[in-house]
């Protein structure tokens, strides 16, 4: 049912040129994907950090006003340092990410072999992105590609919106969901005159990490929030769920491929079918995931046992190409048949 | 600087008739406040629970579809019960509130002696309010009173909007902020053509419980989120901050009285002054709170050391009447001079 690309991982950290000579690329993963002028375009999340010195951990953050990079450097033997998580460390009571992410454009004729830009396409700026920008999702609306992404800063984890027509000039449009919110996937057309999106707020007291729906007149102001699906305790998606990329329109309904993680932090991909006219109505949901971390580049990495797709291209012939992060480290791809997925939802 | 009303607490649980003969009123607190037809109106949060039986803890939840009340009843000696918090208990892995809240209208000629309706004005309904509705804030826009409040359910803690023109007929308008979000305070007029509100999302990884600003064209869809103020570690507002009621327009700026809590969960009231035209700009912020739990009805209660104001009436003569929950239990009031507060902000 899943055809992994034979040249996986498609993009590894070593394939990406650091944005500065004193930086190294830690991860190249979780890409947004689109078709543009007959080619496949990825906006790859490139996570960088300063070249590490012996006895220290260091990371980079951007200044909220000037945009300049600042290096945070901490002695590994400092008792005020907690660096047990490969993604996060805490120093003197402040949480930092171990890397600073930006987006890099990668282009392919066949969707498998990508040419990666030598420079960032979109980088962190302003007060809501000082810890970087992460996990682009791309939705084409008329002739414009809307890119939503996670902005991380000491102010929280928010969702921001940007747009481009050509993957050269990008315009940032600000914060569309306040903290904590990520895994936003905007529908590719209006429904009954409104834009729709899936989003993933974080409910602390109850509710957990569930997928919600919101709608908008202008893509910037969102309302009419409704819960769609939550985690199913004990199942493959028992700890959290989150949207993947923009939903695909099928005669049976909006098909959303979503990620779920379980109590072992294994991330898999399943499917959700939503009513075409009332997308808050769930028609069906995967009992079992169709993409499970099984390949070495999914079972190992910065974190083990992760497939996390944020890019999806509808080939128009009944096949979908999924672009996903393997092991929270590298960019991978696979092909699925829409019909196969819909069959599991019956 | 603070003149507490001499008949505090203004409304105690025993003053409120339960909505059903088999229920008891646990708390009557955190009211929204407005002036209407020359009188002062409060929408008091009335927290009820079933009359408790020996050996059991029980609470009520509403059915998301039918709206009917269901009683949840748990043996106190069940090892699957955790009932250490007076507001919350956990039974068989599910969190419940110890009470179900609705809003009750209370009316006063002098703002001090209130006549309390014998029946609820606004009650929980639908999927986002099964655990009740809490902490109304009222903003008058033209001839309509907009009431935002917290909806609690197993789907999360969200902010909902309703409106009324007469405090008799209420219309619910749905969820305006997804989980977790509370302490919403809508500005009483448009600024540069947009509605504005303060809101309090919950940032888990970083950012904490901070006050944010959003704006809207229609009061239902909100965007342009910006962080305003966060907790100040070690200070009186070091753990969390949240807006109180609608900001007051003064020549110096928008005056927002906000609550902060410290590491001992002491809740106090301080002030924030925001730019009249660019309300995301903080002109000044209280170094010290002006309302501190000191009276017996603030130091004791369901939870100790809490003043939590959600109601505010501008008397138009330089004085403000604050209506607040004391000890998370009862409704209290006090009068402050705008000039006194502004002086502390210089």
Top keywords for this entry?
five-stranded antiparallel sheet; globular; Tachylectin-2, Chain A; 53% strand; homodimer; mainly beta; 346 residues
Chain-wise SSE layout:
Two copies of one chain form a homodimer.
Chain A lengths: L1 E3 L18 E14 L2 E12 L5 E7 L6 E7 L5 E2 L5 E4 L2 E4 L2 E9 L6 E2 L15 E10 L2 E10 L2 E9 L5 E8 L3 E6 L8 E9 L4 E2 L1 E6 L6 E7 L10 E4 L4 E3 L2 E9 L5 E8 L7 E4 L10 H4 L7 E8 L4 E8 L3 E8 H7 L2
Give an overview in words.
- The structure is a homodimer of 346-residue chains.
- With 346 residues, the first copy, chain A, is mostly beta strands.
- Chain A has a single domain, classed as Tachylectin-2, Chain A.
- Chain A contains two helices and 27 strands.
- Chain A has helices spanning 296-299, 338-344; strands at 2-4, 23-36, 39-50, 56-62, 69-75, 81-82, 88-91, 94-97, 100-108, 115-116, 132-141, 144-153, 156-164, 170-177, 181-186, 195-203, 208-209, 211-216, 223-229, 240-243, 248-250, 253-261, 267-274, 282-285, 307-314, 319-326, 330-337.
- Chain A is globular.
- The interface between A and B is large, with 46 and 46 residues.
Summarize the structure.
Chain A is built from 2 helices and 27 strands. Chain A has 346 residues and is mainly beta. Chain A has a single domain (2-344), classed as Tachylectin-2, Chain A.
What would the average pLDDT of chain A be, to the nearest integer?
97
Enter the CATH topology name of chain A: Tachylectin-2, Chain A
Uncertain parts of chain A: none
Could you state the oligomeric state of the chains shown?
homodimer
CATH architecture of chain A: 5 Propeller
């Amino acid at each position: 049912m899943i055809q992994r690309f034979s040249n996986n991982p498609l993009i590894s950290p070593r394939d990406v040129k650091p944005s500065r000579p004193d930086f190294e690329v830690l991860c190249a993963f979780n890409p947004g994907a689109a078709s543009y002028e007959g080619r496949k375009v990825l906006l790859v999340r490139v996570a960088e950090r300063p070249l590490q010195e012996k006895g220290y951990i260091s990371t980079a953050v951007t200044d909220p006003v000037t945009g300049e990079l600042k290096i945070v450097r901490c002695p590994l033997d400092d008792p005020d340092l907690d660096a047990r998580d490969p993604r996060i460390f805490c120093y003197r009571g402040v949480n930092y990410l171990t890397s600073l992410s930006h987006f890099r454009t990668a282009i392919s004729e066949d969707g498998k072999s990508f040419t990666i830009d030598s420079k960032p396409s979109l980088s962190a700026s302003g007060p809501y992105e000082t810890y970087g920008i992460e996990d682009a999702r791309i939705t084409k609306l008329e002739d414009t590609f809307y890119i939503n992404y996670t902005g991380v800063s000491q102010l929280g984890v928010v969702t921001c919106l940007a747009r481009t027509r050509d993957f050269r000039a990008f315009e940032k449009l600000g914060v569309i969901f306040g903290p904590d919110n990520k895994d936003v996937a905007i529908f590719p057309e209006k429904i009954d005159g409104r834009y729709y999106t899936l989003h993933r707020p974080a409910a602390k007291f109850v509710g957990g990490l569930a997928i919600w729906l919101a709608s908008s007149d202008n893509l910037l102001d969102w309302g009419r929030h409704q819960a769609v699906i939550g985690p199913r305790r004990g199942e493959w998606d028992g700890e959290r769920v989150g949207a993947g990329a923009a939903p695909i329109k099928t005669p049976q309904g909006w098909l959303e491929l979503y990620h779920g993680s379980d109590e072992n932090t294994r991330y898999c991909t399943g499917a959700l079918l939503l009513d075409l006219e009332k997308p808050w109505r769930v028609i069906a949901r995967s009992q079992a995931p169709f993409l499970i971390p099984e390949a070495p580049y999914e079972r190992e990495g910065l974190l083990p046992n992760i497939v996390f797709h944020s890019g999806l291209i509808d080939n128009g012939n009944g096949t979908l190409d999924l672009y996903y992060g393997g092991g929270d480290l590298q960019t991978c791809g696979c092909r699925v048949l829409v019909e196969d997925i819909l069959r599991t939802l019956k």
